[in-house]
Each structure stands twice: as structure tokens, then as C-alpha cells.
Amino acid sequence: MPNVFGFLGGMQPAHGNSAAGGSFVDDGELLDSYSRAVVDVVDAVAPAVVHVEVSGLRDGRRAEGTGSGVLVSPDGLILTNNHVIEGARDVTVSLSDGRRFSARSLGRDADTDLAVLRGETSETLPVAQLANSKGVRQGQIAIAIGNPLGFQSTVTAGIVSAVGRSLRAQNGRLIGDVIQTDAALNPGNSGGPLANSAGQVIGINTAAIVGAQGICFSVASNTALHVLTQILAHGRVRRARIGIVAEQVPLPARVAYRAELKQQSAVRVRELQAGSPAAEAGMQQGDLIVRLDDESVTGADDLFRMLDERRIGKSVRVTIVRRSGVTELIVRPIDREL
Question: What is the rounded CA–CA span in Å between residue 92 and residue 100?
């Protein structure tokens, strides 16, 4: 029987050379490399992380709370969680350098558990760069910065455990395109950034499963950018809906080949609401959505972004893959508020 643990026997002394003449890197050097990567990210992102303190009324009683947020513009735009500022009358934010000022809500979106604040200051503030979350890959380094349990400017690191998850928000709706990570999150981390090794924000930390080990969630940065743009334009996020629960899945190569598609992922219809526009158009559970009109749909964030106010009441061509065959359906989305 072959030795399936043969790699153990092939280990060389820490500073020895391989048979081919190449040198091995010892554990200390590997650790230092990892540490340097994390330190560089903290140096780049931590100055833009804010501690959020709120006070207001909940259930008729005065309540106070704290959370985190991240500055995304030098004039004081802050991304945080909806549940951090919900019900707040007064919001105060403070930076790691000691600066402190009040903030006001520009808009909240319970469906994604995101909110946008405006810091009331004339100072130029440090900012963090939002990454394109489509590039996030399972297994890459993930670094969370925030204020868990009141401990300001705390850093935890881990990896991206999964992408394209769905998470149910406090209002009962599913948040799509959620990043799962094992970077430790605790109360107070909410609203803080999840960063990649390039020092870019890939998600806004939103939740952890109580009692679980290393199962934490962040709303993807592409979704956060869409919410930010909508709130700046309308004061809220206007949406169309077609009545499905969607999840991002890989598009099998054989299916893509038969359907003459170049994309590597699509959106699967996980649930279909009876009487919804999608159901009336003939969509079925398990269908893979690959295109809306002439735009490719490669993830839940694409669908989220495309179903905006411009498509409410309009006829939309939805291209689906069903049993390796390509079909076009005409769907007329309705206002989410209906």
C-alpha cells in the first residue's frame, strides 16, 4: 500500500536544501510573511474604521448601543449596519486617532442590513477602498476590524470560508451575495469592514451564528456600493422584484458549452413565490438565470443591481438555462413595496 502520508517523510531540516537544490522556508519566515500582510492591511484600513455610539428609544425606553463603521469618502460618508443605528436619535462616531463628532443617517436599508451615515465635520477624513467583491475567492485571507464588545480597534484574521451565501435579515428577507468568514466577529463588530490582503474592503460585517465556531457573515462590498449609490440618489433603495429567492452557483462547463455561454457562474432559482411575476412568466425552481435583457448575470449581486427602479413595470427578457437548454422568458417586475 502506498504511503499516503509520504510528504511527512520528505520534510527537510528547517534551513536545509531540497534534492533539487532549492531552499526551504522555515515556519518563522512563513509566519512573518503572514504577519506582515495583516499588519499592512491594518495600517491601510484601520484609520478609516469608526466606533459608532447610538442612543434613542426602543419599546418606549431609552436605549444605548455601539457598533462599527467604515469611512468611504473623505467628506464623511460612513457605511455601517442598519441594526446598529435603527431607532437611534443621536449618533456619535470616533476615530482611532481620537477625533470624535456627531453623525446623521442619510438612509437605511433593512433588506441588506446596511445604512449610510454622514459625519458632521469639515475635516478631511481617512478612507478605505471598496473592492470588487466578484473577485473574492474561497480560502483567501480575510481581516475584520471593529470594536467587538467595546474593545476599540480590534483586529481578527482568518479566511473566506464561502461566497455567495444567503442570510436572513432581521426583517425576514434574505440578503444575497453574503461572504462567510471564520475571522472572529462579536457584538460591536457589526458595521465594520472585512478586508482582503490588498487592504481593500470586501464586505461589511453583519452577523455571527451564536454558539458556532467561526461562522460569521459580511455583506459583499458590491452590494454595499449599490446601496450607498441608491441612498445618495433617492434617500432609500428603490427595487423591482420578480418573486424569487436566488443564489449564486458555478455554471458547469458542459452546460456553458452547450448553451454557448462564456460566463463561469449563474444565479439559481432556489425558491419561487406563487403568483409572482417570475411564476406567471413560467420560471421554475432550479432554473439558472444567466442574463437580463443583454446583461450577463453571474451572481446574486448582478440580479440585485439590475432589478432597480428602472425596471419596475417594464418587460424584461430573462435568459435561463433549464436542463442544459436555453430559454427566454418575458418577466414584468413589480415594485418591491407592493
Answer: 7
Catalogue the active-site residues: 83, 113, 190
Q: What are the CA-CA distances from residue 309 to residues 22, 88, 89 (Å)?
A: 59, 28, 30
Rounded to the nearest angstrom, the gap between the alpha carbon of residue 333 and the centroid of all alpha carbons in its chain is 25
Q: Which residue has the cell 427566454?
A: 328
Locus of grid cell 425606553? 61
DSSP letters spanning 9-55: HT---TT-B-TTSPBPPPHHHHHHHHHHHHHHHHHHHGGGEEEEEEE
DSSP-derived secondary structure letter, 22: P
Cell numbers placing 247? 443564489
* Model confidence pTM above 0.90: no
What is the rounded distance in angstroms from the CA atom of residue 75 to the CA atom of residue 72? Answer: 9
d(CA 171, CA 189): 20
Let me know the angle formed at the C-alpha of 145 by 32 and 132, rounded to the nearest 5 degrees: 90
pLDDT tens, the chain, 338 aa long: 343 333 222 333 334 444 445 556 667 676 788 899 999 999 999 999 999 999 987 777 787 899 999 999 999 999 999 999 998 999 999 999 999 999 999 999 998 999 999 999 999 999 999 999 999 999 999 999 998 877 878 999 999 999 988 887 877 777 878 999 999 988 889 999 999 999 999 999 998 877 667 789 999 999 999 999 999 998 988 889 999 998 889 998 988 888 888 899 999 999 999 999 999 999 999 999 999 998 999 988 788 788 988 899 999 999 999 987 899 999 999 988 76
Q: Give the three-class secondary structure for 211.
A: coil
CA nearest to 287, candidates 278, 277, 295? 278
DSSP 8-state symbol, 123: S
Q: How many other β-carbons are positioned within 10 Å of the β-carbon of residue 127?
A: 18
